[in-house]
Each structure stands twice: as C-alpha cells, then as structure tokens.
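Journal club prep — side note

Before the paper discussion, L.F. wants everyone to see what a predicted structure for a comparable chain looks like in token form. Sequence:
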Amino acid sequence: MMTADLILREHHLSTLQAELLRADGTEHAAYVIFGISRIGADPFTHKPRLRVMVKDVLAVNDNEIKSSDHQHISWSTERFVQLLARAEREGLQLGIAHSHPAGPKRFSAQDDANEAELVRLSQNRNGADAILPSLLFTGDGFAAGRVWLSPTSFINLGSARTVSSSWRTISFDQEGSVDNRALARQELALGPEFNQAMRHLRVGVVGAGGTGSPLLQQIARMGAGYIAIFDPDHVEHSNLNRLYGATMMDADQGSKKVDVARREIDRMGLGTRVATFDTWIGGTGCRDALKSMDLIFGCTDDHDGRSLLNRLAYYYLIPVIDLGLALRVTERHGLTCLEADGRATVLEPGCACLLCRRVVDAGVAAEEALRRNDPVEYERRKVEAYVRGEGNPSPAVISFTTSVATMAVEEMIQRMNQFRGVDGAIANRVRKFNMAEDFRPGAKKEPCRVCGSDRVYGIGDVQPFLGRAG
C-alpha cells in the first residue's frame, strides 16, 4: 500500500494560513504548485511512497469566486486550466487548498465530488500520470491532506513537515505520546513533542566514520525511530581510535562500517529501525533511500558525495547538515602546534550551499568521480599530473570528531525545539578548537543556481537525477 507525505517551507505554510483563514470567517481557496518525489520502495517498509513538495501558492482571487460562506466555496476553474499548462511545462503538479474555518477537520462529501472532477480535468489535460494534491485548513491550522491518483482513488497524507529555520512535524495520524523510560529525562528538557517527532523521523547518515560514528550514537539514544546509514568502507586498524563500537576483531576481519554501526544501535534496544547501504550514495540503489529521508547528516569527506547531498537538499527540501573537521600539525617558533577546525553547515532553501561556502571544490569532485568510474584513466592522468594524488592520511582525534558531531546534533535540536530562541538557528558554524571560539563565516555574495534560485527548490524528480550529468 502506498503512503504519502508533504514537505513545505515555513513561509508557504504561513501564506496558506493567511490566505485561507481570514477574519471574515468564510471559506477560501488557493492553488498550490507541487514538485513530486516518487519513491519505489521506502528503505524501512519496502513499500512505495509519494512525497509532494510545495513550490508555490497562488490565492484564488475574489473575482474568481462564484459564491462562498462559512460552509462552502465555489469558484471558476478557468484559471485552474491555465495553471495546468504551467505545471505540465515545468514538470510539476497542480493541487488545491481550501478552508473549513469552523470545521469539520475532514473533507466533506462535496469536497470529494468537486476534487474528483478536478483530477479528471487534470488527467484529461496533462495525462494519466497527473495527480491532484489537496490540503485542508481549519481554524486550528493545517488539518488534513490527501493526494488524488485518479477520480476514484486517493491517498491520505500521513504527515507534513516544514523546513527553514524551524522544522515542525504535523502528524495526521492519531497517535499517543511516546512511552519510553529511556527518554523520560530528555522529555523533561525538550518536551514530549520533541520525543514524538524523533520517533517518526527518518534520519540518513552518510558516512559512519569519525564524525558519523558518534553522531549515530547520539541520535539513536535520542529516540530516532528510523536511521539509514550509508558507507562503502570497511573498518581498518587506523579507524579504532575514533570509531565507536569498533573492535580489534572488526579491523582484523575488515568488518563493514555500516554493520558495526547497526550492531551498536541494535544493542541499545531502543526500538530504532536501521537500514544500511554499503555503497557510494551516487549509485541508483541509494536513490529511494535518500529521497525517503526527513533529515540527512553528511559525514563524508569526499567532494563528489558532498556535491550530491548539496543538490538533494534543495531539489527535495530535505535538510542536510554537513560536518567537517580539519586537523593540521604546524611548526611555530620551534614548537609543534595542533590547529583544529570543526564545522556544521545546514543546507536548505534560504541557506548558502557548500559550493558558495567554498567547502566543495568542483574540480576535486570531478576527479573523485573519474577515480570511481574509470580508475585506469584516473591513474593515467595522475601519472601525467592532470589530477591530484591521494596524499597523506589526515590526523584524527576522537574528542574533536565527537565534538563536531555534537555541534550538528545541537543544530538539529535548535531547529526542532528552538532552545536558543526563535532566532537561534545557525546556518554555518565553525569551531576553532585551539582558540576555544566559534565563528559564523559567510558565503559568496552572488549565490549559485542551486541555492540562489527558487527554480530548483522542491522541484523533486528530474532527469537526470538532481540535474547531475553522468
């Protein structure tokens, strides 16, 4: 059985509430343009999912309304047909939203009949694959949603999530509070709503090494209901100084990092469901899993992987928190000094991307892709000095990798709970460990075509995937 959910930016939710819940107390309506994410198999349920993402909200104007009162609304569909042409041209879907200011918090029989006609009109105009998402608001706010697949069938939305500086979860499934003694003290600090949100959260962690390992320990113990772990590497002896749970036997046997991570989470016994992928995230086998996530932590140190996650955050409205740590040993006045810089960067609409923050080097990313896809050609170019060599291994200290993981988790908590206040979100934080100070570096004044344009925000499925060549 297919399931469905919704992601929208906070300002789109505010716009919908302002347009639909007016002081006059009558029903109002709006057109909504959606991007679509079709997920063949959710990594935890193995069932298909449909995710719709709000791209634009357009009010139904007063001159289009034929009649309305506190219990009904009727409007001309002439503009609906015009917007269907726009949706087809841009590879998007057209839906509607309307209000029941005084209730009920469910779709009426008249809504059923009207929306069935609209989806019939959509499919006659744009083809059998056209769908019709429909959102319902009451005086209490966002009350229900569904996606029509045909004039006779629809899927109810299970939840809606907001992105921006505030990550809120609106659940349409009636469920009680989390009853878990292990989270009782966390509830005292962050509230029952936080524990409830964590239980339903699908978290992806790309990289189960130095920063990914302590991060997995933390989010699992915070009650994350679902965790997907992506890492193609095996445990080596040089990993044991920072890989939580890894043993000398794991290094001797070359255990997969994802298997060690799963083993440690399962041992906690907290009910977290884990899916693992021991391959590079750019493979087609990872796409459904990545698209299924509600939040992703980027704990990889390769530029090509970061570049992919960078685009994913904007195309699919899935927030990505990218982690980085640089340790350098230098000589100053005859003394050996350690410089340690940790970074946590949030990627989502409204935040500068990794290219604009000069974290990702497109040239290095291309070299990494060449090494992975055509190792013979890569070695030839390396000999001829057209590409860089691998270089020496980087220093690593567990206290610093753990601190960076904690910086990322703190930013997750802020955006779900606002413990620093409503304006406390930090899009890019760099910690200078040797100076005991945090900084907030800026980005390029002119943002790129990925993070600086509404065009890709929430556009969802395109060909090629994420607009990436190759």
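L.F.'s comment for the group: The longest strand covers residues 320-332. Keep this in mind when we get to the figures.
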